[in-house]
Amino acid sequence: MKIDIVSVFPEYFEVMNLSLMGKAQAKGLLEIKAHNLRDWTHDVHHSVDDTPVGGGAGMVMKPEVWSECLDELLGFSQPSGSPAPSGAPVLIFPNPSAPLFTQRDATELSHADHLLFGCGRYEGYDARIPDYYRAQGVDVREYSIGDYVLNGGEVAVSVMLEAITRLMPGFMGNPDSIVEESYTGEGALLEHRQYTKPAVWRGIAVPDVLLSGDHGKVDRFRRDEALARTAEIRPDLIAALDCKALDKADRKT
Ligand code: SAM
């Protein structure tokens, strides 16, 4: 998968060379390139922002700089009115006032060939930027990563990128580790609690059933715990469950 990221702090993405993300790049599974938005400015100050139309505090990212940059990275040869080139990347803007990014989005995007992220700063980017590229036929997404406001899109892009790339075939050393996880699959629940050895630590024992060697009972215990934890912590996920994802024993839980 090819990933381009545009930011006024491209150095932020040097951490992508570490850990599993670094290994995936070394294996050729991922190709990540961070670009400096200021490279597309023409003034001596390399300014990317201006005051908000209509007044108010802070600054807004200018559409002209973004469009020069995005036209080039999207492969638009004639910026105005030309349709999106075939094979254009999915264009993603993090935005706290957008729909929430979920595991479902991560799963869908893990199949894309090319993603292009645009990191906002200040009060955000001019709203006409995503509108314009959508009108040109580009697949434009805006996502929030949670109900809070960050200083910039860099952290949000890192979060989305990690959620997306770990779902790519070949990314994880053990592919089974992403099959049974919170928010995953048809009847997405929070995962059951996890334990390792020793069986008793500081006087606290792991649940007996996990030591029984009875896989049927272990599975039932974990499933019941997942249902109970989800009902308590995230009742919205229980409300959204498709009844077909429940078995008879679940209905008794
Ligand atoms: N004025 C905006 C508002 O109130 O909705 C906040 C702008 S924020 C300070 C600057 C940038 O950080 C945003 O354009 C976005 O790219 C990023 N950002 C901040 N919080 C975010 C969140 N929860 N999810 C996704 N992106 C976020």
The CATH class name of the largest domain reads Alpha Beta
Backbone structural class? alpha/beta
Largest sheet: 5 strands, parallel
CATH architecture of the largest domain: 3-Layer(aba) Sandwich
How many separate domains? 2
Order of helices and strands: EHEEEHEHEHEHEEHHH
Q: In the CATH hierarchy, what is the superfamily of the largest domain?
A: SPOUT methyltransferase, trefoil knot domain
- Spatial strand sequence of the major β-sheet: 2-1-6-5-7
Rg over alpha carbons? 22 Å
Bound molecules: S-adenosylmethionine
| Low-confidence segments | none
Q: What is the global morphology?
A: elongated
Explain the overall architecture.
- With 253 residues, this protein is an alpha/beta fold.
- It has 2 domains: 2-165, Alpha/beta knot (3-Layer(aba) Sandwich); 180-252, tRNA(m1g37)methyltransferase, domain 2 (Trp Operon Repressor, Chain A, Orthogonal Bundle), CATH 1.10.1270.
- The chain is 30% helix and 13% strand.
- The protein has 8 helices and 9 strands.
- The chain has helices at residues 19-26, 63-74, 103-109, 128-135, 153-165, 215-233, 235-239, 248-252; strands at 2-7, 31-36, 49-50, 60-61, 90-94, 114-118, 140-143, 200-201, 204-205.
- A 5-stranded parallel beta sheet has the order 2-1-6-5-7. It has a two-stranded antiparallel sheet with strand order 3-4. A two-stranded antiparallel ribbon has the order 8-9.
- A hairpin with a 2-residue loop joins strand 8 (200-201) and strand 9.
- Helix 3 packs across helix 5 (153-165).
- The chain is elongated.
- The model has no long low-confidence stretch (mean pLDDT 94).
- Bound molecules: S-adenosylmethionine (SAM).
- S-adenosylmethionine is lined by residues 94-97, 119-121, 123-125, 144-146, 148-153, 156.
